[in-house]
């Protein structure tokens, strides 16, 4: 506040751009305005089916469980904001007004700390700025740099708010780095690659007009609006998939992801030769859609590959595998809720197939029943 000209406070959008009472209409035009507001819907999450009467592990914050099994929740109200001459900084897309020296609270959040402790909020020397003329849209969200779940459900879903103005944008901001798994879905969404700027932790832009949204999806609280937006964006209609289709079993492999792979995956596949192992990061968007829509059963370790189950037809059976000792996370069972899929959760020893309680023998019995 005293030693720099940097922003030093965090305020809600409506507090930063709240016109004084009784102000005249004869004043300079501004682009700082709420462009759109949509009310969030209620979501009913049913508790997932837990295999073999296993107990799930829950992370606590104080004495309270971080996630609930089920209940009636509310999805966030959706806002589309525009700001004149705003600045945006870093991977998470933290936005501030340099004239008012205020960060905008709705622009981003941190994972486990209050935004007041963010390094950008407390930096004495911010990275140098680059000016962007025209209109800039932000698809930035925390975690979307390397997390497919966050990229898909928290970044790409912003198309639902930007649809009428997307083609008018001069610049489009995405979490960097540019990767094939991002580009294939960006192409499927018909977003112009030539307009994309890939943000990193030192990126800092001063925008003539900056348009952004609030968080459209609560943390691990997927909602119908987000799922329907993805289907509309990618041109997908799961309702047209035949309900009486041949049995097709898919194993979403996680061999390329440390601590997410089942070491004895090959033994499982040898026992169940009808299961097709698929590494979704290696195939294009069209093939991903075809494979998931054809699947009647999907088995996968907990991880980003399960983000694709929204492509499955209603009634598809999902078996999500957690490694022993891992904290339960409800994002994919809740996604199944929304998409009318039959979701089951099981804890497994990812390292030792000989484990009498969660090894190959027990898993084979569960898998046999699951496939029937």
Please characterize this protein's 3D structure.
By secondary structure, the protein is of the alpha/beta class. It has two domains: 9-30 and 77-216, no CATH class; 238-371, Rossmann fold (3-Layer(aba) Sandwich), CATH 3.40.50.360. It has ten helices and 19 strands. The N and C termini lie far apart (65 Å). 34% of the residues are buried.
- Rounded radius of gyration (Å): 23 Å
N to C succession of SSEs: EHEEEEEEEEEHEHHEHEEHEHEHEEHEH
Beta content comes to 25-35%
Overall shape: it is: elongated
- Number of alpha- plus pi-helical segments: 10
Low-confidence stretches: none
Oligomer: single chain
Name the helicity range.
Answer: 10-25%
Q: Give the integer mean of the pLDDT values.
A: 94
Domains, number: 2
Structural class: alpha/beta
Largest sheet: 9 strands, mixed
Tally of DSSP β-strands: 19
What descriptors fit this protein?
10 helices, 372 residues, nine-stranded mixed β-sheet, 2 domains, alpha/beta
Task: Offer a quick outline of the entry.
By secondary structure, the chain is an alpha/beta fold. The protein is 21% helix and 26% strand. The strands form 4 sheets. Strands 1, 2, 8, 9, 10, 11, 12, 13 and 14 form a 9-stranded mixed beta sheet that branches. A 6-stranded parallel beta sheet has the order 4-19-18-17-15-16, with helices on both faces. A two-stranded antiparallel sheet has the order 3-7.
SSE diagram, text form:
Elements: E1 9-11, H1 13-16, E2 33-38, E3 42-45, E4 49-50, E5 60-61, E6 64-65, E7 71-74, E8 78-89, E9 94-97, E10 102-104, H2 119-122, E11 130-138, H3 148-155, H4 159-162, E12 171-175, H5 180-188, E13 196-199, E14 204-213, H6 224-234, E15 249-252, H7 265-271, E16 275-278, H8 285-294, E17 297-301, E18 317-323, H9 331-339, E19 342-348, H10 360-371
Parallel strand pairs: 1-10, 4-19, 11-12, 11-14, 12-13, 15-16, 15-17, 17-18, 18-19
Antiparallel strand pairs: 2-8, 3-7, 5-6, 8-9, 8-14, 9-10
């Amino acid at each position: 506040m005293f030693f720099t000209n940097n922003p030093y406070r965090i305020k809600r959008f409506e507090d930063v751009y709240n016109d004084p009472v009784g102000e005249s209409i004869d004043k300079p035009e501004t682009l700082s305005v709420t462009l759109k507001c949509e009310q969030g819907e209620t979501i009913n999450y049913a508790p997932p089916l837990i295999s073999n009467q296993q107990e799930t592990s829950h992370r606590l914050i104080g004495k309270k469980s971080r996630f609930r099994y089920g209940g009636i929740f509310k999805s966030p109200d959706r806002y589309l904001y525009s700001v004149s001459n705003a600045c945006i900084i870093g991977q998470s897309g933290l936005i501030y007004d340099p004239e008012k020296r205020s960060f905008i609270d709705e622009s981003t959040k941190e994972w486990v700390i209050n935004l007041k402790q963010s390094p950008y909020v407390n930096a004495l020397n911010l990275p140098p700025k680059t000016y962007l003329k025209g209109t800039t849209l932000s698809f930035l969200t925390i975690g979307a740099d390397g997390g497919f779940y966050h990229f898909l459900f928290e970044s790409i879903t912003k198309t639902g708010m930007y649809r009428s103005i997307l083609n008018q944008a001069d610049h489009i901001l995405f979490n960097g780095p540019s990767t094939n798994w991002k580009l294939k879905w960006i192409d499927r969404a018909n977003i112009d690659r030539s307009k994309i700027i890939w943000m990193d932790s030192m990126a800092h832009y001063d925008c003539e007009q900056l348009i952004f949204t609030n968080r459209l999806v609560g943390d691990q609280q997927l909602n119908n609006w987000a799922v329907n937006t993805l289907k509309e964006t990618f041109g997908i209609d799961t309702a047209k998939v035949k309900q009486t289709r041949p049995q097709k079993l898919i194993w979403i492999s996680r061999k390329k992801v440390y601590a997410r792979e089942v070491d004895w995956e090959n033994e499982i596949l040898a026992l169940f030769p009808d299961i097709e192992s698929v590494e979704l990061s290696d195939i294009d968007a069209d093939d991903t859609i075809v494979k998931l829509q054809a699947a009647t059963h999907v088995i996968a370790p907990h991880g980003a590959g399960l983000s694709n189950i929204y492509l499955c037809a209603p009634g598809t059976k999902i078996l999500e595998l957690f490694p022993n000792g891992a904290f339960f996370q409800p994002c994919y069972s809740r996604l199944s809720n929304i998409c009318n899929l039959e979701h089951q959760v099981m804890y497994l020893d990812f390292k030792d197939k000989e484990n009498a309680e969660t090894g190959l023998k027990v898993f084979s019995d569960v898998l046999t029943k699951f496939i029937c």
